[in-house]
Design goal:
This protein is 24% helix and 9% strand. With 295 residues, it is of the alpha+beta class. A five-stranded mixed β-sheet has the order 5-1-4-6-7, covered by helices on one side. A hairpin with a 4-residue loop joins strand 6 and strand 7.
């Protein structure tokens, strides 16, 4: 008697059905995985801002004022000045800011990427260094400084400048944010209240132009404020278009941009916030209440 053995296994049709089911499951899972990853990145970004806020408070405790946006004499930006509060004392000591301008500073020091200055939704700290740039006809320095970038900017208020600029009628527009050129402001100067005043937020950088001047040069570069400060308000909305070459706050998180306020709290502000409300948040002393539910 002959015994016939039947082969066990999938038929072609069954195999195709299984592959199809797996494909559908993967298609359903990918958006969930992406949402989980973005939620983790957003939480990490919020923690970065929290640490920056604490470093600002540390600077205020040590010096009685917040850091300036940048020092005079081609010095550093606020991002360098708060390094001791980020436990980066060794890096801070690599540049004698009292004697050396930025173009004579240790170039290796300027290229050190501090992880807290990077939002994981945009790029990792290992991203690289910014490109050199030319600014001929503006100052004695012909070429910009290569250095580590960063994804956060100090708030300079609604005027678009960290120093006084003239209006066409001859009047001066004074910087009204938490940070100004050359001198630090005390918390007492933020008369609208620490919980109502933005310190630092995510800075807009056009997609495809990471590391390119003028919107993404070295975060330590005090000569070029566009590297590390941003305005907000009626003339400077939160930038929702990632490809726009616009000077303002903006993030790679969907629908929101995150900020640390002067009281140390971190808030995700909707990109659609009214321009008036945004202006009130970045102004240190307008005396106006923030509309309830603005962000």
């Amino acid at each position: 008697m002959r015994y016939l053995r039947r082969r066990s296994g999938f038929t072609l049709v069954e195999l195709l059905v299984v592959i199809g089911v797996i494909g559908v499951l993967i298609g359903l899972l990918l958006p969930a995985v992406q949402r989980i990853r973005e939620a983790a990145n957003r939480m990490k970004c919020a923690n970065n801002l929290k640490q920056i806020g604490l470093a600002m408070h540390f600077h205020h405790d040590q010096h009685g004022v917040l850091p300036p946006t940048r020092t005079v004499g081609e010095g550093p930006s606020w991002a360098w000045l708060i390094l001791p509060g980020l436990e980066q004392d060794n890096l801070y000591r690599m540049w004698d800011i009292g004697k050396l301008p930025i173009y004579k500073a240790n170039p290796e020091a300027l290229r050190v990427a501090v992880p807290i200055y990077f939002c994981p939704s945009r790029r990792p700290p290992t991203w690289g260094i910014t490109q050199p740039f030319t600014q001929r006809g503006v100052c004695a320095l012909a070429d910009g400084i290569r250095g580590a970038p960063g994804d956060y900017a100090a708030s300079i208020g609604t005027t678009g400048s960290d120093y006084s600029v003239p209006f066409p009628n001859g009047e001066l527009a004074y910087p009204n944010g938490a940070f100004v050129l050359a001198k630090g402001l005390s918390f007492a100067a933020l008369s609208d209240g620490l919980s109502n005043t933005v310190l630092v937020g995510e800075k807009h950088v056009p997609a495809g132009k990471l590391g390119e001047w003028p919107l993404d040069c070295s975060i330590y570069d005090g000569h070029n404020p566009s590297c590390n400060v941003r305005p907000g308000g009626p003339d400077y909305p939160i930038v929702a278009d990632r490809f726009a070459s616009v000077f303002g706050f903006g993030s790679y998180h969907p629908t929101v941009c995150q900020f640390v306020f002067a009281d140390g709290s971190v808030h995700a502000v909707k990109n659609s916030i009214s321009l008036v409300a945004l202006g009130l948040l970045v102004h240190r002393s307008d005396g106006q209440p923030i509309p309830e539910g603005s962000y």
